[in-house]
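Appendix B: complex inputs.
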Amino acid sequence: MELKEAFAGTLESGDIFIQIAPSKNKGVQIDLDSTVKYQFGSQIKKVITETLQGLGIEDAEIKATDKGALDCTIRARVTAAAVRATGKDVWKD
Amino acid sequence: MSTLKDRMADIQAQAAKMNKQVYKGAENKATTFKKDFQKESPKLVTLEQAIKQSGLKDGMTISFHHHFRGGDKVVNMVVDKLAQMGYKNLRLAASSLQDVHEPLIEHIKNGVITSISTSGMRGKLADAISKGLMKEPVIFRSHGGRGSAIVNGDEHIDVAFIGASSSDALGNACGFSRSENAKSICGSLGYAIPDAQNADKVVILTDDLVAYPNTPASISESYVDYVVEVESVGDSSKIASGAIRDTKNPRDILLAKQAAKVIINGGYFKDGFSIQTGSGGASLAAVKYIRESMIEQGIKASYALGGITAHMVKMFEEGLIEKLIDVQSFDKVAAESIKNNEMHKEASANEYASKDEQGSATHYLDMVILSALEVDVNFNVNVLVGSDGIIRGAIGGHQDTAEDAALSIIVCPLLRGRIPCVVDEVTTLITPGSSVDVIVTEYGIAVNPRRPEIAERLKKAGLNIVDIHDLAKKAKSIIGDADPLPFGDKVVGVVMNRDGSVLDVIKNIEG
Amino acid sequence: MQRLRRTMMFVPGNNPAMMSDAMIYAPDSIMLDLEDSVTMAEKDAARLLVHNALKTIDYGNIEMIVRVNPLSTPYGKKDVEAVVKAGVHVIRMPKTETAEEVQELEAEIEKVEKEIGCLGRTQIMAAIESTKGIINAYAIATASKRMMGIALGAEDYCANLKAQRTPSGDELLLARQTIVVAARAAGIYALDTVYSNLNDMETFRKEVELIKRLGFDGKSIINPRQIEIINEVFTPTEKEIEKAKTIVAAIKEAQAKGSGVIAVNGKMVDKPVVIRAEHTIELALAAGVITKEEL
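Resulting structure:
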């Protein structure tokens, strides 16, 4: 899928800031900075990757700045960034 | 007739018998106007002279207090000087360390400081130590535990460096100044008193050298060997601002109201009760609700203890609290009050919370409200190591007050963002569950099964009493399962219990 | 038993931290907002956030409401789709002026419900925020069988009225009474507007006492600190509870006997009195002043 650079989310506590960009490499590359990296780093990366795959995005570069967001917030922010990057909404237009 | 001359043989015989000299005649009398004479006090020296004259040698222990908290200037000033003078291998025994002590990292790397004992640490220093900066593990003690250790010799201090907001040339020193030239104020010097009383040599550093006698004094001249005048001992604005600021955070208010209800309905809210509360938002707000109930029910407290805050001073001035016992002034209002009101008593760390001292104030404490980084299903508490494995707190009086109080209450949210505060097992054991009675969270109140009568009273008052295991499960259901922390094999910290036994060790964190 | 709707707490739809712990304050309803508290640039992101929160976060027994953007905006329909799919209990329609607008929303909801196979799951409430809306209050209240309640939105209403807000609320009296009368005539809930000065809890309490006297079921709130005061005001007095208990006991007695007639001290009790007694007991239970065992 064609991607533009886009972002979603905030740097507020309990939120995650997602920047998405097209990638020359295969797969989803995630650069994660998180206040809970030790405990939840792998879970956060998993949620990001699965959310993108669910939207049909296999290759992307993600920079994520996490301030302790819950999984449901991560899903929402990744989806919002992806929708903005692809111009293809998940809701009917 | 018997003259002095006649008795001389007897005097000499008696002196020999007592192994004493015979009086040889007076030295010259000091006839200078004494106000000027004070300035010639032999105790009045420069920092470098004080260090040299104290006999400090490599490998010895130096001590400091933390009454200026983040505004402290003494630790960095003295250790810089020691480094400059070429000292190595010193042990630093602080009552606590703060963000501002980051320069110690360099002194540790250069071998000036090779061992530390403290109540806690934060910031970059704590981060570096958590990651294995030091060869020797840091020894962590509670305030009461430190007081005991200094007295019983577990923590022998060679030279104590004590910052004071005023001192005369003889060493009568206070955490405030009565002079017009006052530059700083920290209130109580409680944590420095055991150091002054027990160290081999005591150096007072002051930024307001006042005329003798600077009495009443927190630290008496009789303990003091040297007085050093310096530009500044601490930035008082870093203690806290002068005014009472009530929290607007709705979660803190919710926790505070619940904690106040536990205090009011727990069975100890009776005329003459004693109480300690912390300085956190929820704890301060709880005092407001407790005050309302005291007025409503006509109940007065015999004393409030601990870190004294403006809220406590207000209730003291209103006559709701008879006396304040102050080991540390948490804000400027408290610091001013200790200066102005003699019923606001300054207490040493030992008088405050030593297990060895029968008369310590914690022994007679009814209730305490404390905070926590983590509690576990066995009611153990951690206030020192973050759930990322990095040291970011202090034991403070936690162990002391929780163990001694008839009712100890921990106020702690279930979650801080994605960090769980009620867990299966605390990252580091600081206060054993046997000391902890009630945990207040925003998802309900858990009562230690050892105190069924408390649970009964709180239920009767309509409070939401829950099983602590359910709280831990609730936390997991919201945030998911956390991965284990990447601890290494090196011991970077040792947690002492207040009785001098070893409670736990802190391993280095990798990454 | 009917649902209590004393407190409906506004939570901005683009604030994940507030959305994840709003339930700890135990409001009767939580209203996640996609309208005024979300900037145009963030409408898409907030919609996704609210959708995921509703699907994932355990709000317990709290009623979940979402205020969507008007259908006349580019966001309205997508909002409806997102929140209906997430299983929202109630959609709050802002700035409602006519029954037709309600029916339009109902049609949108039905479309989504049919698609996912849950026809009739979602309720509607209408916020009336204009003089035209007040004039049409009864028509709006009866526009759909999904209608759960009508609420007053005082800021826009006052601007439209060309009146200033005052602490006494004289300027709102007609609107408030119209809302209550229309809601009662339609058999739905009447909900009052927000009070936004958090530093004046005394005037807030007076306003709550006023709207309770007028017959409202509850009030929209903007901060958890307002919950305790509303609950206090809506807690029945001991005397009210005692009276209600006697009537409830009489109901049980009648049921046990298999009798349709409910009597207290030999006097027959009318249906409205029975309903009111049950409501009093619900309020008392919710406030914790009586327990289930006591009944």
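The first strand of chain B starts at residue 61 and ends at 64.
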